[in-house]
Amino acid sequence: MKNNKRKLWDGRFTESTAKIVEKFTCSLHFDKRLYKYDIEGSIAHCMMLEKCKIIKREEAGKIINGLNSILKEIENGVFPFREELEDIHMNVERRLIEKIGKVGGKLHTARSRNDQVALDVRLFLKDEIKETGLALKELQKAIIKIAENNLQCIMPGYTHMQQAQPVLFSHHLMAYYEMLERDYERLVLCYWRTDVLPLGAGALAGTSFPIDREYVAKLLKFSRVTKNSLDTVSDRDFVIDYLAFASILMMHLSRLCEELILWSSSEFNFIEISDSFCTGSSMMPQKKNPDVPELIRGKTGRVYGNLITMLTILKSLPLSYNRDLQEDKEALFDSVDTVKNSLVILKDVISNLKVKEEKMQEKACAGFLTATDISDYLVKKGLAFRESHEVVGKLVRYCIDKRKTLNKLDLSEFKKFHKSFDKDVISCIAVEHSVDSKISYGGTARGNVVRMIREAKKELRGSFFKFS
Ligand code: ARG
């Protein structure tokens, strides 16, 4: 039998909750992170109750003062958190009643924890999206900066991980700028979907009190309100949107990290990651390991995992609120933190990279990367592309047999393969010429890349979407 009243909801209960159940159902250890939003939402709700004459002005005053003092208690680390009260919402409400008495019990009029928790998560995520967006823009800035500082640097471009054609290192880096730009677009959409007020849905059916949801939306800076109470308390699509955004972003970061790891190996030797972002080996004295990019690559796994967690929680979940939904928060918090930390640290890694221009150039000149340029040269002399492809294929075979690179061939050797070769072929073998000839829109010609960088910088100076 229960001896003293411990819960805000135990009116119909005759026995107290088993300890093991309290522990199992408790979400306080993670949802206390939402305290600021919970209090902010409660204050707005209370102002609305007063405005709609559902509670009296003095009652609202007492409640708001009480909530503000609870906010201070939490921020000063003196709030008496109680696990047996399940979650942050119950902790705040119980404390309010303790502080201001019975009137505190009026706060929850026309509200349920179901619409309350949906509100808290949306408020939290709106803030986090803004921070994610800023960190993403900072990483883009760092990428642009190193692209701009290394415009003369030519590297081998790859397909199938085999050397393909020479490209500007800056062009390669700006490819990541583009990926991040798409991620930003996804984030903007994510914000738009999150920016809807759920409060007022009640437990599932709405409320009979004459509430004003638009007013609450205005107070809390939501651009609109949800339209169906059942959907409102059971919807976590906006969480999935963020987790999907986060997964794609991490996929991009892990691709960049993979390249940093490869490029910093002695096999490639294209870049050096600054000492302050590497670690050593406890056994091998010569080692300098790229742990930061490796960890970002690894953390991509947990971010994908969180997306699958959330999709699985929602799969087949009947309407409307079910306790399963409590599992949304850890997955979301973990991805939010992982994404932000990864963006911030990767920006530092990129800003401190040492670019080994001569090594890249050396590799770009050593293979047969301008074979396509020679083939295009013959096309411009009147050959069909398929024919020129065949001629240059044979030329490459000849070089392999003779252990020569293309730039070591003289004109007479070229002429053996086709009479249309002339002395101007020599200049078209140079990697600089190859790069600068790719003037098609989006190609790697220096002029193009300079223009793209200029446009990207303009975008970053202010024309991109700002979260309000
Ligand atoms: N801690 C809960 C959650 O995170 C709050 C809502 C609980 N609602 C309920 N009816 N038990 O989802």
Notes on the structure:
There is one protein chain. By secondary structure, the chain is mainly alpha-helical. It folds into 3 domains: 3-109, Orthogonal Bundle (Fumarase C, Chain B, domain 1), CATH 1.10.275.10; 114-356, Fumarase/aspartase (Central domain) (Fumarase C, Chain A, domain 2), CATH 1.20.200; 363-462, Fumarase/aspartase (C-terminal domain) (Ribonucleotide Reductase Protein R1, domain 1). 61% of the residues lie in helices and 4% in strands. The protein contains 19 helices and 6 strands. α3 packs antiparallel against α4, α3 (35-51) packs across α6 (113-149) and α11 (291-314) packs antiparallel against α12 (328-351). The longest helix is centred in the first third of the chain and has 37 residues, at 113-149. The mean pLDDT is 95. The protein binds arginine. Arginine is lined by residues 27, 31, 87, 113-114, 117, 323, 325-326. Arginine (ARG) is lined by residues 27, 31, 87, 113-114, 117, 323, 325-326. This is Argininosuccinate lyase. Residues 368-436 form the Argininosuccinate lyase C-terminal domain. Its main location: cytoplasm. It is found in: Cytoplasm. Keywords: Amino-acid biosynthesis, Arginine biosynthesis, Cytoplasm, Lyase.
| Element order: H for helix, E for strand | HHHHHHEEHEHEHHEHHEHHHHHHH
CATH-level-2 architecture of the largest domain: Up-down Bundle
Query: Unreliable runs, pLDDT <50, ≥5 residues?
Result: none
- Major sheet attributes: 2 strands, antiparallel
Major β-sheet strand ordering = 1-2
Amount of helix? 55-70%
Oligomer: single chain
* Ligand kinds: arginine
Rg calculated over all Cα atoms: 31 Å
End-to-end Cα distance: 53 Å
- SS-based class: mainly alpha
Shape: elongated
Q: What is the CATH topology of the largest domain?
A: Fumarase C, Chain A, domain 2
- Summed over residues and divided by their number, the pLDDT gives a mean of 95
Number of strands: 6
CATH class of the largest domain: Mainly Alpha
Strand % is under 5%
- The total count of helices amounts to 19
Integer tally of domains = 3
Enzyme class: lyase
Pathway: Amino-acid biosynthesis; L-arginine biosynthesis; L-arginine from L-ornithine and carbamoyl phosphate: step 3/3
GO molecular function, one term: argininosuccinate lyase activity
EC number: 4.3.2.1
